[in-house]
Amino acid sequence: MNNQRWLAKNFFMFFITWGIFLPYWTGWLINDKGLTVSDASIIMGFGLVARAISTILIFPYVSKIMSNKNVLIFFTVASLVTALLYVPIDSFVGLFIMTMLFSALYPALLPAVESSAATLMQQGGIHYGKARSLGSFGYVVAVLIISMITGIYGEQMILWAMIFGLTALLAIQLMPAPNVLSLAPPKETGKTLSMRGLFDVKSFIVVLFVVILLQGAHASYYNYGYIYLQELNVNPFYIGMILNVAVLFEIIYFLKADTFLTKWKPSSLMLLAAIGSTVRWILIYAFPNMPMFIVSQALHALSFAMAHYAFIRYISQALPKEQIPNAQGIYSALAMSLSAAILTLLGGALYEVEPSLAFLGMVICTVPAIVLILLTKNRFNY
Fold this sequence. Notes:
Layout: H1 3-31, H2 37-65, H3 68-85, H4 92-105, H5 109-123, H6 128-153, H7 157-173, H8 195-198, H9 202-216, H10 219-231, H11 236-256, H12 266-286, H13 290-297, H14 300-318, H15 324-353, H16 357-360, H17 363-380
Helix pairs in contact: 1-2, 1-5, 1-6, 1-7, 2-4, 2-15, 3-4, 3-5, 3-7, 5-14, 5-15, 6-11, 9-12, 9-14, 9-15, 9-17, 10-11, 10-15, 11-14, 12-13, 12-14, 12-17
Organism: Solibacillus faecavium
Subcellular location: Cell inner membrane
InterPro entries: HcaT-like, MFS_assoc_dom, MFS_trans_sf
């Protein structure tokens, strides 16, 4: 089994489905299932909470009793079954329950794939960045394909596209996997496998807090980037292209991540990411126009991609294999879910005052991240 090829296929196919879920699921609930905007927002908001709880509790637990390969199969099958159960449901209560279930199961595939990647990195011989870049490429492909399909056949195709994508992902999971991913986890259930055991690694809590700040700082961009471009009177036809510029630079960084700045420590990469993120939000505030927004998109390679890669490199170097799922669960729950949810409220309040302030407000995370890294990187040597 070619480890690199296996990982690349998993990233690509998962992010195909992620490119259906993230941008289109709320719209599908509104346009196909007939919910109001407020009802869909309530459902997706609670879904974010379900996602956080699942990735910090359910995913690590499943990872303690199953091999990496079986964890992927379990969550893929569960997600596919749940997606199929959506078909006959149209009521608010029914859609609320199904979305809570789907949000608890499907997003757990992200830390599952990332955990497999970190495990393979420990074994050596794989290029994480190259494999992850195919994931970003898959996301772009999905966004473009779904936009065309829904334009022709309507929003009902979003669910069927998800079902098809999960079926294809399951087919990949049923193929042979690298041997290390098929090994059952050790039987011990002591401190070494508990969440508390993570914090025996003194640098982990610092690194975790840094990535919570850095990933949370994207809250305004993810939630208000689209409507901000509308405020700038950008033609809707071009908005999707402009937003995909960030993903393009993300892909470029991941392609070069395994050879670019390889001698830099994770702390140095995080520091550069924090500086790039700060500059990004200040630029959008200081120059509220479309050309500067496009220029700022290039900094996504630092603010998101470099920060994410630094964390993956850190856990693959600093943690034992058995603790990687716990670390991924906490990272997914706190850095990729809850921090963004909380900072969305701040961004929304600032947006009502002045749209560009929503982006400047994110330096409330990036500047403390810079200070924290400078104060701790030598002390904890991460």
